[in-house]
Write a structure and sequence with these properties.
The protein contains twelve helices and seven strands. By secondary structure, the chain is α+β, with helices and mostly antiparallel strands.
Length: 398
């Protein structure tokens, strides 16, 4: 509802902006060490899945013929070791979170340990296996979203070189491909290998999907708030000139049955700024915008057209209705109780120019007519409402 861009909206909207653009609840706004802690926790969860799988295989004698048992035992110990390292890395990220050197180097160390463990496991199950590729793509994507590119490329380049070299050596027969498994045929013909790949991929995809869903939701909401912020005047929190022009363009392309434009100019506003200061002038503009917003109907639009000038777009309104609303607004502005910083009472008045349209009149032409009516109101002594009737000349203003 357009009308709600007044006093209550100002406080609630600014609260939303603060929450989603400034506060730490938004993952994108976390410190680099908090993001590192998140990555360490996610990496630890992945290691738990690996530890569980290897423990299950070791406890299932019927599966021993599918794996290199000695290598599996060694890898299980290494998984436990890396899991402990990842958990322990959380402690310095928490305790030294305010240290500049920690903010600079701990992210590199944290991601480096995680990447090293992923490369090791990838070499054991096959560098071109689905699980390794999914881990590689997920790590790169998550890293680029959360961290500075330098941190990501610090790990990405060595990992890429490692995968290329390992694949080359396995093709040349210098090392075995997926040494953890006994693969006498194509890996994809080995049901145990395929089911193991699915098991390794599932937690990575699940974690990444949840993380990206959170990030995308926060990103979309933040974009909506930023877009909303670009449409309103930062001082009065009513629509700005750009938004008003967009509203007029919509009226031009999708004309409604009838509407009216009301231009409002505060009388002798420069004197308020000069005599009482710009802070008092700003407060005057804020209170005027609130007064206008309280009077117009829900379907109508109020905006700041520039400086001390405001505009109303009154949808589905006749000229008589528009004049009544303008008169109410004039009285509300005149009734404002403003005090200067030294306690002086400040009288505020405004002049109004009203123009009525149907589908045959261009909005820009109507705006020009409202401006002529406003000029007439000023010429006749200010603090009054003048109308420019449809299809009538300037001499017939009343």
């Amino acid at each position: 509802m357009k009308k709600n861009l007044a006093s209550n909206t100002r406080s609630s909207f600014k609260a939303k902006i603060a929450k989603y653009l400034l506060e730490d609840e938004v993952i994108m706004n976390w410190s680099v060490l908090n993001k590192s802690i998140l990555i360490l926790i996610l990496g630890s969860l992945v290691h738990i899945f690996w530890i569980f799988w290897k423990s299950f295989v070791l406890l299932s004698p019927n599966l021993w013929n599918f794996v290199d048992l000695a290598l599996l035992q060694l890898q299980l110990k290494l998984d436990i070791l890396f899991f402990c390292l990842l958990i322990l890395m959380i402690l310095p990220c928490v305790f030294w979170s305010k240290k500049k050197w920690a903010q600079q180097w701990l992210p590199y160390l944290s991601i480096g340990i995680l990447v090293l463990s992923l490369c090791r496991n990838g070499a054991m199950i096959g560098v071109l296996s689905p699980a390794t590729m999914v881990s590689y793509v997920s790590l790169v994507t998550v890293g680029l979203v959360l961290f500075n590119r330098k941190i990501v490329y610090f790990s990405l380049i060595p990992v890429t070189l490692f995968l290329i070299l390992s694949n080359y050596l396995s093709l040349e027969g210098h090392i075995s491909y997926a040494p953890l498994f006994h693969l006498n045929t194509s890996p994809y013909q080995n049901k145990f290998w395929v089911s193991s790949m699915l098991y390794f991929i599932a937690p990575i995809l699940m974690i990444c999907l949840i993380l990206f869903e959170i990030l995308l939701s926060q990103w979309r909401h933040r974009e909506q708030l930023i877009q909303h912020l670009s449409q309103i005047d930062p001082l009065t929190n009513i629509l700005n000139r750009r938004s008003i022009k967009a509203c007029l363009e919509k009226l031009e392309h999708r004309p409604i049955k009838s509407y009216a434009l009301v231009l409002i100019d505060l009388d002798h506003f420069k004197q308020i700024n000069d005599q009482y200061g710009h802070n008092t002038g700003d407060e005057t503009l804020i209170q005027v915008s609130e007064a206008l917003s309280k009077i117009i109907r829900d379907q109508d639009v109020v905006g700041r057209f520039g400086g001390e000038e405001f505009i109303l777009i009154l949808h589905q309104s006749s000229l008589a209705q528009a004049k009544i609303i303008a008169e109410r607004c004039r009285q509300a502005i005149q009734a404002l109780h403003l005090l200067s910083s030294v306690g002086d009472s400040i009288q505020v008045t405004a002049s109004f120019g009203v123009a009525f349209s149907s589908t045959e009149i261009d909005p820009q032409k109507l705006l020009s007519q409202a401006d002529k009516a406003l000029y007439e109101a000023k010429a006749c002594g200010r603090n009054q409402v003048k109308c420019y009737p449809e299809n009538l000349g300037e001499a017939q203003l009343y």
